[in-house]
Specification:
single chain, 122 residues, mainly alpha, 5 helices, elongated
């Protein structure tokens, strides 16, 4: 994330990567295959962003806390330096900027693919 400073430059970078993949792997060079590649990129970003959103919402915090406690109580080799109570939960490890990056990229690429679909079917 530190390499790409602006979210707009990362959108342009994603469009450039999509274009490169389109030229390499598309069976025919037409707009429909480019829209498909753009849709695949947007699905990846949206799916990753939604999974991060669910984790950040705290859905898995209780399960993680319970499993850490269970493992620390049931293990034979106790590690006294590793305290399971002080380790951060999954919702605390995901930053908001990281989550918003994936959601922004996914929504923008999906909107661009919808606009291209409208142009294609006119």
């Amino acid at each position: 994330m530190s390499i790409v400073r602006s979210k707009w430059t990362s959108v342009i970078l994603n469009l450039f990567l999509c274009t490169i993949f389109f030229w390499i792997w598309a069976p025919a060079n037409n707009l429909l295959y480019f829209i498909n590649f753009l849709f695949y990129f947007s699905c990846f970003y949206l799916f990753t962003g939604l999974v991060l959103w669910v984790v950040r919402g705290g859905l898995f915090d209780g399960v993680t806390f319970g499993m850490r406690r269970f493992v620390s109580e049931m293990s034979r080799n106790k590690d006294y330096l590793d305290d399971w109570k002080d380790r951060p939960l999954p919702s605390k490890t995901i930053q908001r900027s990281f989550l918003s990056f994936f959601l922004f990229q996914g929504v923008l690429l999906a909107l661009f693919s919808i606009i291209l679909l409208i142009v294609y079917y006119r």
